[in-house]
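Mods, move this if it's the wrong board.
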Amino acid sequence: MKNSPRYWHGVALLIAPATGHTGGATFRDRGPMTHAAGLLTMALFLVGLLWAAPASASDPRLPLPNPGPLELVGYCEGFTVLITWTEFNQYIIRAKTSSDGTTTLKITGNAQATVTNETTGKAVSFNVSGPGTLVIFPSGAFSINAAGPNLLWTLPENLLHFPDVPTISYTTGHVTVEVDASGQTTAYALAGGARQTDVCEALTP
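Not the wrong board. Structure tokens:
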């Protein structure tokens, strides 16, 4: 992996964490990493692993393992957030790498996440099943094209051009995100009828 993305992550896309691990331990995301969830969880982080373990002929899906608890530091003003997965059955159903090194992953499945304010214990739960498509460019830039319900998060400094977009956003409907190689969000759009919820605001006392 040439450059570990440092930007949007999500529940079906936990993009290459800089530190931490799964397997029951809490992963702390302190930045500059950010993420895109619900549809795209751990996709990029696990690309190499998935290529090493191809699906069987009877089931072409490539399962994504449960990423485990994820602690987000610096996303909500005044408190740290913990994301846990109460259900996680996500799959890469199509993967393609073009001649220029661009990788396209189509992801679907079922997932449920609970987001908790670690100071007060207040929690909200979401269906974050997606589906969606993640395109990863050789430069480290990437794009997300997601439908259905998704949980997306990125640090405030990656939203300089989109100050009204929540740092932790629950979306329902069609959402598209583009991020450049530096981690800056360059495009963010909700299609007509799509909705978003500011999760930090929902967890604020």
